[in-house]
C-alpha cells in the first residue's frame, strides 16, 4: 500500500470507509439497576423486609479491624434471624471509629480495645523515654554569639 495514501487516510480520522461516522460513540450501560433488581428478587424469595432508618453498620473482625458501612441498605427477617446488609463498605481500624462505637462494643471487642490501648501506652512510653536522651546527643551546644563562632571556624 502507498505510505502517502495511508498517512492521508489516518489524518482524516475515520474508522471505516467513506460514509461512516468519524467517531464511534460508546454507550455506557448501567448494569447496577439490573443487579439491584436481581438482588431485590432474591431478597423477596427469602422473605426479607426492608429496614429503613439504619444510619450505619459496623462488623467487627477478629484481627481488630472493622467493616464499616455508612448509610447501608438493610433487609431483615426477624423470625429466621437473617439480615442482609449491602452498600459501600470500608475496612477501618478501631482507632478511627472509637468514640462513636463504644456503645456497640461487646466483650470480645472490649478485649481487643484494651490490647490496643495497652500497645498505644507502651509505644507512647517508649517514645517519651527514648526521645530526651537521643535528642541531647544530636543537638549541638549553643554559643552566645554566632559571629564569634563563625570567626573561630574560619581561623
From TrEMBL:
Compositionally biased intervals (Acidic residues): 132-155
Pfam families: NAC
Domain of life, source organism: Eukaryota
A cellular-component GO term for this protein: nucleus
Location of this chain's protein in the cell: Cytoplasm; Nucleus
Residue ranges, annotated region (Disordered): 1-24, 121-155
Residue ranges of domain NAC-A/B in the record: 33-98
This protein's UniProt keywords: Cytoplasm, Nucleus, Protein transport, Transcription, Transcription regulation, Transport
InterPro entries given in the database record: BTF3, NAC_A/B_dom_sf, Nas_poly-pep-assoc_cplx_dom
GO biological process: protein transport
Keyword Nucleus applies: yes
Sequence ranges of Low complexity compositional bias: 121-131
Record text on subunit structure and interactions: Part of the nascent polypeptide-associated complex (NAC).
Annotated family: Belongs to the NAC-beta family.
Stored PANTHER family: TRANSCRIPTION FACTOR BTF3 FAMILY MEMBER (PTHR10351)
Record's protein name: Nascent polypeptide-associated complex subunit beta
Organism this protein belongs to: Entomortierella parvispora
Amino acid at each position: 500500500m502507498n505510505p502517502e495514501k495511508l498517512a492521508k487516510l489516518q489524518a482524516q480520522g475515520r474508522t471505516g470507509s467513506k460514509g461512516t461516522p468519524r467517531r464511534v460513540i460508546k454507550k455506557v450501560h448501567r448494569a447496577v439497576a439490573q443487579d439491584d433488581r436481581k438482588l431485590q428478587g432474591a431478597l423477596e424469595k427469602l422473605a426479607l423486609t426492608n429496614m429503613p432508618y439504619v444510619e450505619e453498620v459496623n462488623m467487627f473482625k477478629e484481627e481488630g479491624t472493622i467493616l464499616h458501612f455508612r448509610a447501608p441498605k438493610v433487609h431483615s427477617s426477624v423470625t429466621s434471624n437473617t439480615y442482609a446488609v449491602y452498600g459501600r463498605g470500608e475496612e477501618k481500624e478501631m482507632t478511627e471509629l472509637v468514640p462513636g462505637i463504644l456503645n456497640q462494643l461487646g466483650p470480645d471487642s472490649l478485649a481487643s480495645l484494651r490490647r490496643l490501648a495497652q500497645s498505644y501506652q507502651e509505644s507512647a512510653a517508649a517514645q517519651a523515654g527514648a526521645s530526651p536522651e537521643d535528642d541531647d546527643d544530636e543537638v549541638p551546644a549553643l554559643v552566645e554569639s554566632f559571629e564569634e563562632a563563625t570567626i573561630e571556624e574560619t581561623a
